[in-house]
Amino acid sequence: MSEERSAGAEPVGVGRSCGKVLLMGEHAVVYGHPAIAVGLDDGAHAKARWSSGRSSELAVASWGLAVEADGEDLLSQALASILERLAVRRSLSVELEVHLPVGVGLGSSAAIGVAAVRAIDDLTRERRSEAELGAAYQAWEAVFHGNPSGIDHTAAARGGTFVYRRRPEGALIEAIAPERGARLVMVVAAPGASTKTMVDGVRQRVQTEPQAAKDLASIGALVEETLPFVAAGDWARVGEAMNTNHALLRALGVSCPALDAAVDVARSAGALGAKLTGSGGGGCVVCLTHQGDEHLERVLNARFEGVLCRTLN
Ligand code: PMV
After folding, report:
1. β-sheet bridge partners, residue 14
2. Does 48 fall in a domain?
3. Which of 60, 153, 202, 285 lies 20 to 30 Å from 277, alpha-carbon distance?
4. Per-residue pLDDT tens digits for 198-247
5. Is residue 7 included in any domain, yes or no?
6. How far apart are alpha carbons 169 and 147 in whole angstroms?
7. Do 219 and 133 belong to one domain?
8. Does some domain include residue 108?
């Protein structure tokens, strides 16, 4: 029973989730290749309450955003899709706090969906299984892009560092516990592009250019080769692999001049590796450095707004 529910007369369901940064393997993961994700703690918090409104609603007060489940926009459709999945028949209202920069590849959309589903599940007290909740997370994500690999909502739901492999029968997920830590520095290099547009663009290339499928397979092989280095905390090797991963993403057409420039700044400032993260076209670059090395953070903070740091362990 949630703390809030026991404290007052009005039932309140609560839910939390993480953000994520993809260390390697984005886009290729959609096609079944492995990818490595690192959860960012404290992504989103949600509270759900029953309401007397005609339609259920979802609001992020700090963004001045409120939608209703019978609306036309994507967020409304996503809310409707989770209510449908969770078979909720009464109106409710979900309030969210989001602690992530939005739409820049750090998993804000999945974080909102997972926190909202958990809060609604808590409110309804139906003790749904993880698989049922997972289907609702997936339904939320599918509204924003038709073919999500599931890595974003998996990171939002479980956090930590893990390798993810999409499979028709259900994803294979393995936690990674590196022998020693490293520092990740995320920089917002440009406004984010739509994940759907970027994923569709890669699909079109796969259909028309044989090289694109080869590049995706090369990313998959690179991730596979790099996994032992992540586990061993051999960050110099991981950094090199991140640089190669960025070059392959560029070849796939998902980078942009602002992302390439931020990658160059980070490498010149001593990053072990730097690459775009998420669907690209804009958004964030993820940079790797040794734990305790603050030089990179200082240089990036002086050049960019929106620098976020986390220990990879
Ligand atoms: O842009 P984001 O943070 O939503 O990243 C999506 C990651 C992709 O691999 C491009 C798509 C997916 O579903 O895995």
Report:
1. 47
2. yes
3. 60
4. 999 999 999 999 999 999 999 999 999 999 999 999 999 999 999 999 99
5. no
6. 15
7. no
8. yes
Instruction: Give the domain range for residue 146.
Output: 13-175
| Report field, pTM of the whole predicted structure over 0.90 | yes
Q: Do 197 and 129 share a structural domain?
A: no
Atom index in ligand 1 nearest the CA of residue 106 equals 3
20 shares its domain with 129: yes
Distance (Å) from CA 113 to ligand 1 centroid: 15
Ligand 1 within 6 A of CB of 151? yes
Atom of ligand 1 nearest to the CA of 141: 13
pLDDT at 313: 87
Q: Are 219 and 33 a contacting pair, CB within 8 Å?
A: yes
In a domain, 5, yes or no: no
* Closest Cα to atom 13 of ligand 1: 148
Below-70 pLDDT ranges, the chain: 1-8
Q: Which two tokens stand for residue 196?
A: 């759907």
Cβ of 25 closer than 6 Å to ligand 1, yes or no, is: no
Written as six digits, the tokens of 164 are 């993810």
Cα–Cα distance list, 146 to 95, 143, 191, 196, 260 (Å): 26, 6, 22, 7, 27
